[in-house]
Write a sequence for this structure.
């Protein structure tokens, strides 16, 4: 089934394969389904009393701007670092120990960070409006901070040996990388969804019947 292509400017439709550029505007054609609502469509919604604010409009599944893509990538990276070397044992045995290994042992509380990264993936993926992205800022920041808190506890309460067993170790690169990813994820989560005031304004008709958009053009700025 052929897809329809549309000019992003004049919205004239063309069958797929007929041309790649709009003959009137000279603009590259795009898949009609990927374009936002046209001014005419927005005006019809206003006249029908069915206006959907920009922050509530559905976004494409592959819209990874406004921190969505960055937070998904950081969640995957944080989950992968859970299996990286956090501790390099030198005595009594030589071994690289990951957070996964520690969590399966006596440090079961380390599962919290991994669960936070895992839950954040579907949580952010399913937020398909700016409003919904902004609505999960706090919970995403909380999930992202779990690993940072765990790293802080590990560094402040290192393992000790006993009278009969000498323990010597160094911190692996994974624990520091996990802390960095967690810190960056907290910052990104706190700004998830971006600002609302930079979204495209809805068109309206002024008292002279002219279709306009809210803008500061021609206004005196103080």
């Amino acid at each position: 089934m052929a897809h329809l292509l549309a000019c992003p400017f004049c919205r004239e439709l063309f069958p797929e394969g007929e041309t790649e550029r709009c003959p009137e505007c000279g603009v590259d054609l795009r898949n009609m389904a990927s374009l936002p609502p046209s001014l005419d469509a927005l005006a019809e919604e206003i006249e029908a009393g069915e206006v959907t604010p920009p922050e509530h409009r559905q976004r494409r599944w592959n819209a990874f701007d406004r921190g969505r893509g960055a937070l998904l990538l950081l969640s995957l990276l944080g989950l992968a670092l859970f299996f990286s070397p956090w501790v390099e044992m030198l005595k009594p045995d030589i071994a690289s120990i990951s957070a996964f290994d520690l969590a399966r042992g006596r440090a079961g509380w380390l599962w919290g960070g991994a669960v936070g990264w895992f839950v954040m993936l579907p949580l952010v993926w399913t937020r398909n409006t700016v409003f919904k992205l902004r609505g999960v800022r706090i919970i995403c920041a909380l999930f992202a901070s779990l690993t940072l808190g765990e790293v802080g506890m590990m560094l402040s309460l290192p393992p000790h040996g006993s009278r009969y067993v000498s323990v010597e170790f160094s911190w692996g690169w994974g624990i520091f990388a996990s802390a960095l990813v967690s810190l960056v994820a907290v910052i990104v989560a706190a700004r998830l969804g971006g600002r609302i005031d930079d979204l495209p304004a809805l068109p309206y008709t002024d008292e002279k019947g002219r279709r306009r958009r809210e803008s500061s053009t021609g206004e005196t700025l103080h």
In short: The chain has seven helices and eight strands. Confidence is low (pLDDT under 50) at residues 214-222. Helices lie at 39-48, 68-81, 99-104, 111-125, 130-135, 137-156, 173-190. The chain has two domains: 4-51, 68-190.
